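#data-curation
PF: Archiving a pair of folding outputs for the training set. Convention for this channel: one message per protein, sequence first, structure tokens after, nothing in between. First:
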Amino acid sequence: MTRRPNPEPDDHRVGDAMPLARRRRRAHLVVASKVVLVVALLGAAAALALPSPAATVVGVATVVLVVGTPMARVAWLVVRWLRLGDRRFALVGLAVLALGVVAAVTPL
């Protein structure tokens, strides 16, 4: 049985969560997700309170925000995976983006 090497000092686990170094690198994603959530909730509330033409515009903008945010994250990951040379993950990410585009342009 081989022993695994000790992790780097900056990569110690914090409780049951991800390593501290990775948590610091992803902190901006948590903040951005919270901002998108608040804006989406405000947009949904505004779409309910506004008169019909304005409510439609705000409602569409809210849906675009809620759907576009994860798609932008996938696009960012595809670029990152391509830079790292991981073509398989990048291909899967491109397939997910293609599904989103097909769903957006297909009429109901």
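PF: Second:
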Amino acid sequence: MRKVISMNDDLQLKVLPRLRTAFYGQNASAAEYRDSFVVCETIARYEEDAALLMSDRITESERTEKNITKTLNFRADCYLKLTSLADQLAISPAEACRRILYYTAEYAPKTSSKEFTPHELSQLKAKILMLEESVKALGKALLLTQNALSETKTEITRLEGDVSYDI
């Protein structure tokens, strides 16, 4: 479901990239993980009390002038959760969304170069499986090639044995 949300530059240029990096690692790009995906993931991961979104620190961030509108695609479950939180706090879903983003960015775990996110680990495991399958396929191909080579040598030996040289 598509919704238009007004945001300020801080959300667009600092908060969303920070969340993208925290969730998906240092190499996560905006092309791979669109803002809509990051927003939905942030909402889905938010499990705290709704009242925490009304902290003074977030309210200060929220007071800045909104100067961009952003069309986001929400998953149905995320939008339902967002509207539920907004109803609890008596604020608009757009404001609830911005507050969740600010809150999560402030408290999101920072990833270091030695830590891997669950997404990165699943990608690495998938690569390992693919490489193991490639090694098995190469092993079979090598065995077939060795068998063919052995058969060819045997055939050459047989043919050489059949040839008689008359001198």
